[in-house]
Give the backbone structure.
Amino acid sequence: MYADSRCAVNTITQALDLAISLKDDHIGVTVDVFHLWWDDRLQAEIARCGHEGKLFSFHICDWRNQPVDMLNDRGLMAKASSTFPKFVMVEQTGFRGFNEVEIFSNRYWAMDQDEFLKQILQAYRTRS
C-alpha cells in the first residue's frame, strides 16, 4: 500500500534475497503480518528465512477488511480477517525471538489501555 511512494522492497522474497546478497550477519528480515498477509509465497519464504538464519523479528497484528485508515486500523491477532493463524509457521522455523505486537489503531488507542492489553493477551493466547 505504500510501495508507490516509499520502498520498492515489498515482498518477503525481495527482502530475503537482498539480506542474503549483503552477506552480513546483522541484516535479516522482519515478518510483519500487516504487510505480508497477502503474499502467495509466504509459507515457503518464511521457511527459507528460517533455513538461512535471516528471520530476525516478527510483528503481529491482523489485517482488517476494508480498514478506515490504511496505517492506523489494524486488528487484534485472529480477530480481524483471520489472516493471522497462517503466521504460526514463524515459530516452526525455529524462530525464538520476540513476538512484537504492533497494533496501530486509533480505535484501540482511544479505549482504556488496561482493557486493550487484556484483549491483546487474550487474542495472543488463542491466536492459532
Residues 16 and 96 are 18 Å apart (CA to CA). Strands lie at 29-32, 55-60, 99-101.
